[in-house]
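task queued by scheduler; priority normal; single chain, no ligands, no partner chains; default sampling; output format set to structure tokens
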Amino acid sequence: MQRTNNAPARVALVFTALTLLVVTVLCGVFLAAGWTLPDWIVVVGRWIPALVSLVVMRLYPLPGGLATWWALRPGGWRRLLLGSGVAVAVLLAAYGATALLGSVLGIVAPLPWADLSSILLFVVPFVLVYSLSTFGEEVAWRGYLQRLLSGWGFWRSSAAIAAVWVLFHVPLHGTLALQGTLPWQALLGSTLLLFPLGLLLSAAVCRFGSVWPAVFAHALPMSALNLVRDPGALTSGPFWSFTAISAVVLTAAAVLLAPRRAAEPVQ
């Protein structure tokens, strides 16, 4: 009878606990001291998971190098461009479909085409710039942790990672809300939508075999709310209806992009 190797799961638990502890302590310091969270903390904070993963890899070494555990090998430039382009296009299409459905149902009003075209014009340069920040999250969550939990199967592991990713943002978003930087409704909605977005990013990584599609898709500096008029003026009912539509569309996109073959578990 073959014994199951539980070492990757134990390492995953250590990595997750340490990462959540670090971000919670960091936000707690700002709250206790009465310091307003600066804008740059979001950019820098995205590198916390990557730095913690380096520490955990040193404490609990497993076979394979950094390129393997961070899923850095794209399999050539053609595959890199294809995977990244598809991931960004699928996410952008999901946001567009959400805005369209919300408009058809009378929940929101779409932006005029002139505004939409100006947004699309800046998608590529913004994605390239923001990827310098999202790299720090994706190599840890959808690279390191996704590989550690590969024995769980795609959907179980991706759901667990998406849930942890939501928890990772709770201290930051909670601090922003408590300090009055952003309204509670917007922060709560954006936090909950991280779960279906996480499924989609995991699907991109597992479909194309590297973390780069998730790095660039995550760097897309917008959401479905950016494609509608006056999103800040939405009352509670329309806001949560639109959020629910976005969650359904993102989940459907993850299902379409998910790999059809299970990944090999880490030994």
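post-processing summary
- The chain has a mean pLDDT of 92.
- Residues 72 and 210 are 6 Å apart (CA to CA).
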